[in-house]
């Protein structure tokens, strides 16, 4: 509102203005009205202000980055097999428990997969083809993940992104973590 007043050069509003045709107390209060701008000018300025606000919002969202999980403290520390069993028992309750939380998952490396520049560490029981925890590694940490060997015990920190349940019982279910960083080897 202040911007419109300045644009209209209404620096001295007239709150009291004589009313013609009245005798005696002919002064009535009158609010300042923007008279100097035409409707088209007001519309153009309003559209420009909205476009500027949208541009600023879009720029901030485009350049927004995720937190580096290497420096973030984990909300929960769990074993990979215990995490999978918790999701198998009640996936809705487990997802609600771990949603928007950072997990430190400890377990044995089943495999390390590199597909189209993405590196995924699969944690779980190495003796059978059962359910596992699939950790999509952050691109900065991918070089460190490539050198992992099957059976090595590690801790991976990441954010839960989903659970793929296997209803057939043939392939095993997977808990998925995203933006993973490698912790200490144990």
How much helical structure, as a percent, in the residues? 25-40%
Number of helices: 5
What is the CATH fold-level name of the largest domain?
OB fold (Dihydrolipoamide Acetyltransferase, E2P)
Query: pLDDT under 50 segments (min length 5)?
Result: 9-17, 28-33
Task: Tell me the series of helices and strands, N- to C-terminal.
Answer: HEEHEHHEEEHEE
Proportion of beta-strand residues? 25-35%
Report the CATH architecture of the largest domain. Beta Barrel
The fourth-level CATH homologous superfamily of the largest domain is: Nucleic acid-binding proteins
Estimate the global geometry from the Cα principal axes: elongated
N-end to C-end Cα span: 63 Å
Protein name: tRNA_anti-like
Organism: Paraflavitalea soli
Keywords: Membrane, Transmembrane, Transmembrane helix
Pfam families: tRNA_anti-like (PF12869)
């Amino acid at each position: 509102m202040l911007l419109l007043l300045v644009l209209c050069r209404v620096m001295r509003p007239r709150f009291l203005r004589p009313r013609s045709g009245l005798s005696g107390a002919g002064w009535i209060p009158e609010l300042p009205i923007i008279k100097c701008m035409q409707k088209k000018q007001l519309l153009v300025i309003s559209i420009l202000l909205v476009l500027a606000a949208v541009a600023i919002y879009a720029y901030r969202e485009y350049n927004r980055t995720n937190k580096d999980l290497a420096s973030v403290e984990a909300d929960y520390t769990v074993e990979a097999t215990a995490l999978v069993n918790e999701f198998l028992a009640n996936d809705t309750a487990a997802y609600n428990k771990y949603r928007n939380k950072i997990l430190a998952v400890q377990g044995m490396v089943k495999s390390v997969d590199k597909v189209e520049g993405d590196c995924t560490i699969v944690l779980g029981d190495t003796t059978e083809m059962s359910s596992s925890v699939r950790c999509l590694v952050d691109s900065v940490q991918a070089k460190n993940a490539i050198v992992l060997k099957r059976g090595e015990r590690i801790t991976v920190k990441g954010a839960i992104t989903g659970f793929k349940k296997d209803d057939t019982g043939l392939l095993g279910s997977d808990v998925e973590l995203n933006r993973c960083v490698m912790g200490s080897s144990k």
